Amino acid sequence: MDNDLGNYRKSYEKNALLKKDVPENPLELFQKWFYEIDNHFAIDEGNAMTLSTIGLDGYPKNRVVLLKKYTYEGFIFYTNYESEKGKAIDENSNVCISFFWHSAERQIIIKGKAEKIAENLSDGYFESRPTGSQLGALASNQSEIIEDRKALDDKLKKFEKKYDNKEIPRPKYWGGYIVKPTEMEFWQGRPNRMHDRIRYQLQEDYNWKIDRLQP
Ligand SMILES: Cc1cc2nc3c(=O)[nH]c(=O)nc-3n(C[C@H](O)[C@H](O)[C@H](O)COP(=O)(O)O)c2cc1C
Q1: Which residue, 58, 112, 134, 53, is CA-closest to 86?
Q2: What number does the ligand 1 atom closest to the CA of 80 have?
Q3: Which of 19, 55, 70, 177 has an alpha carbon 20 to 30 Å from 126's alpha carbon atom?
Q4: pLDDT tens for residues 12-35?
């Protein structure tokens, strides 16, 4: 097989990231960009982000998860604590999350530390989920091998029967992580590959050092 993609080429021309657009706190720039992609660019699931962890096998692994909340403290997503990513975070809490919003020609890369959120916060979010998603969380030992699709569907049926018309408790192995950022980079595509890159790094005094990087 020999598929040459060398002529896939695009000029990025929609926006710029200039000093006047760069607040002292990167969470404020995140909020501005998120608002813009939500309201002005037709981006489906703009809260989908790539989460990278360093696995127990020593390899990095990326997968997409959904950002469910962000505050000045960090970025929250929900998952199975016993999944491959959960085990990786137990061993090494350094993670990276990133967003690529192609119709805005923007990328954000965030390095940080992942921590489990308080149980009552996970309870609150779990309760807000549709019943089907709650049952799905119960029925899936995420990242474990299962013999076939039927076995998975049978597990779901078992839980549907067990919790018919009953409140579904949050399984202890399912909950949220907050990624507390230590570095955030904002990338805005520009013509001729002369992109704007602004990097924030958290300092010991909790101020953010801001640098422009070459594209
Ligand atoms: C658009 C999209 C959203 C997803 N959202 C989540 C999520 O919020 N939480 C989650 O655990 N998995 C989510 N997944 C599935 C993960 O990408 C991944 O398959 C799963 O978490 C198992 O990963 P692991 O085996 O590396 O732990 C999503 C996948 C896609 C494509």
Answers
A1: 53
A2: 11
A3: 55
A4: 999 999 999 999 999 999 999 999
